[in-house]
Write a structure and sequence with these properties.
The structure is a homotrimer.
Chain A (H helix, E strand, L loop, with lengths): L17 E9 L2 H10 L5 H4 L1 H6 L9 H17 L2 E12 L8 E13 L5 E11 L5 E12 L37 H4 L13 E3 L4 E2 L2 H10 L22 H11 L1 H4 L4 E9 L9 E13 L5 E11 L19 E12 L1
Antiparallel strand pairs in A: 1-3, 2-5, 2-8, 3-4, 4-5, 6-9, 7-9, 8-11, 9-10, 10-11
Protein name (chains A, B, C): MaoC family dehydratase
Pfam families (chains A, B, C): MC_hydratase
Chain lengths: 344, 344, 344
């Protein structure tokens, strides 16, 4: 019997099943440095231990999206090795900052399965939890993927489709213990705009762009121990292209959004997300954001802002999004809906 | 009003103005590892905590040029976003080594402005200071750039041109507290040549070359949180090329100069520098040095050596420099004049 | 006299000579993060401090091959600058894990010289030892290289060819102090297969592939301070190609072998190795392994497994190896023979 991992197929997933994912990972200043080298990330809270301390944290955490990638990467061999498509995210929440020295691992519970009418594949819903070395939850999110069946004659399971929130309710956002933006230094943070300066409906073109290189997206994707073939092996697809890990586009767009949203410091919830079109090396990624909502939090000086982050590639119209048919324009790469914390 | 940073234009700079730059940055062993991965840097003092301790330092500092890049990178959004050209450096001094765990920030004082006769742009002189978490100065340097005017009808300011030293006087060099090369191990450092073995006027061809890749210069430039579009966005210039950050060439040339100058350990002053010609991916960078001067320091076993470091690209003649017209040969990329510390 | 390093030529090596190599190097979490970013390495013992502690170690060591590359890189300027070919490895043993904070240096003793019959070059055998800051040996190995003569008229030295073991005897394997796999968590480690599940003669196709980029192999090679021109300078070879450091292929193949050998955690011996064919950017590296032998160790729950690791490139037949003429197939890049430790 082959010793390599064949991955799970649709019929291998049962609602209620819990998968403990390999491999635990200890992060350090090395991961922090690499994150800054791979993305134009400049958020002061993640760049400076001093800035973090003034904000009530013990030191600068690892970027929230780096924590997400570490947690997500571990699920790939168990959840998406035989996936045909990554369909969506919901109910994502960051529950505790991750600091250098922390060791992360991931678990997923299967919360839904629904076979497709073609009988060849089905949709699997998992709720993934990232835990640190104290078994404290650092984040959780729901993801659903379309997975092939191994045996087309396997009977369809009873369909279970979870009832997922369209948006994380602001009262469910977890503000890190101690976070306090009362003494926030806007000059050091890079921009003067505070929570009160953003209006729902406002759109921001982040202006800057980055042309993607093969070496960079592979380095990034491996850093999170996501080893899916399609990102690394130019002989895998017929067109000889390496598909870029969607998370690379998420981090690139989020980092680009610093220019106009420098004070949207911490990501606390992922309401939803779609990888609208594939991204390949040579594409030039730009980003724009739309303010979708605002909310207060109990923490001193801390407001919450709900943002749509859209990544586009070369050729995109200004604020390119969906066409009249409701479909994404072909130059749209990513549509992400998240909550961030910002000084009031 | 757009929330993105439009940058400052010529008429926004006033002599005496002090700009506190975003974003503070904590460095760690991660930045050290990346510096070694991006450049063929082998100076023992920066590579080994043990070697540094024998030399009287608490541990290996972050490379002097890495400290420079961190300090410099922060100034880009405030000083050179609308710059047409980076014209020069002077009076640069490293004042204190930077160690893993230190948090750096930058401030610049405008010390000169002079509108060009065409009325479309002007030259701005700033003295930039890098500070650590204790507000101790770690370095300072003067830079002048040509910046566009926003409003061509804005009146020309009174011209102020600072009187800058052509060379940092050796008696103004700051030798790090405790530095002692009395027990210097030349074998472990990689070369036997000591301060006394170098003669003023001597030229050294550093022999080795590195062909530059897009991914590498972008990773390096982002690592210092320098996010100038022209380095990252292949759609920005009409020729589709990404201009390589001048600091990447500085670090590459300095690292190449290990072969022949392995014992020129610490950089303590930047007397001047010119980015003679642009560098692009695919160029093969080589370097040569000329000994310009030597001086004693009060520190045990420590001498100072003033070096011209010239980076060239493919096609350069041996020791390529300037033509009879006083202009740099087209294959010359960099002309840097600095003081380093070397065991006597 | 030129101050750059001309390297040693064949006639410069004398049996019994000991060379202390420059430059000592302190490793940190930065090197660990970069190793994970450059290779699809997922071994739990090297990824997680917690997993390492449960296995009886103080924290996760730096990958064994990273330690090898650091030790090896230092020898290049002294041993292989004028080498025509890297001929082989033998009697390699890892003697002590390397942890973040350790400072490594290398020494080599010349243990054999034999001039070639053409009188133009000769074979030099060195036994290289890596030492940490306490002068404890962390590893040792024998390497032999063909080196050019400087002076063709120099007389041939008395030939000394060391008698090298074909395989490190299992009783000479050094199991790290405290290592204990009694509480090994196979689920967290990523695979269920234990020592008892592998049979001598069994072959494993590791399935995954990685297409190599110039930026990546240069970043990796510099990380180990291996600055041999041929890896970096596209103008050096007539065909404009940069030869990829053989160690990059070793690490890539070993990391790919996680898929099927996730529990072959620690490398403890290098029995032999051949860089069968050169590797260049654009090649897609895959790997397969063969179980050559198994042995018990005295340590609780710890078995030893001897593996042949073969790296191939695009176009290779399944389990490509040698032809009937005993020569490697042209698509074979690497043939490595090593001992690893695995939970029983």
């Amino acid at each position: 019997m082959a010793k390599t991992n064949p991955g799970r197929f649709f019929e291998d997933y049962k609602v209620g099943q819990v998968i403990r994912h390999a491999v635990p990972r200890t992060v350090s200043g090395g991961e922090r440095a690499m994150y800054h080298a791979l993305y134009p990330a400049r958020s002061a809270l993640y760049s400076s231990d001093e800035f973090a301390r003034v904000s009530g944290l013990p030191s600068a955490p690892i970027d929230d999206l780096a924590a997400f990638h570490v947690v997500f990467g571990k699920t790939v061999p168990d959840v998406s090795l035989n996936a045909v498509a990554n369909l969506g995210y919901a109910e994502g929440r960051w529950l505790r900052p991750v600091y250098p020295g922390d060791t992360l691992r991931s678990e997923s519970e299967v919360i839904g399965v629904k076979e497709n009418s073609n009988g060849k594949s089905g949709v699997v819903y998992v709720r993934t939890t990232g835990l640190n070395q104290y078994d404290h939850k650092v984040m959780e999110y729901v993801r659903w993927v379309m997975v092939r069946k191994r045996d087309l004659s396997a009977p369809a399971p009873e369909a279970v489709v979870p009832n997922l929130a369209k948006v994380v309710d602001p009262k469910d956002l977890v503000v890190p213990t101690g976070l306090d933006f009362s003494n926030y230094d806007f000059e050091l943070a890079g921009e003067a705009h505070r929570w009160g300066d953003y209006e729902v409906g406002e759109k921001i073109d982040h202006v800057d762009g980055v042309t993607i290189e093969e070496a960079e997206h592979m380095i990034a994707t491996r850093l999170w121990q996501n080893t899916a073939k399609v990102h690394f092996d130019a002989t895998f697809r017929e067109d000889g292209k390496r598909l870029i890990y969607g998370g690379h586009v998420i981090s690139m767009a989020r980092a680009l959004s610093f220019n106009g949203l420098a004070n949207a410091q911490m990501i606390v919830a992922l309401n939803g997300g779609a990888h609208a079109n594939p991204c390949f090396a040579g594409d030039t990624v730009k980003a724009w954001s739309e303010v979708l909502d605002k909310a207060e939090t109990g923490a001193p000086g801390v407001g919450a802002i709900r943002l749509r982050l859209v990544a586009t590639k070369q050729g995109a119209a200004p604020f390119a999004y969906k066409g009249e048919d409701g479909k994404y324009a072909p130059e749209v790469l990513l549509d992400l809906d998240y909550w961030a914390l910002m000084p009031i």
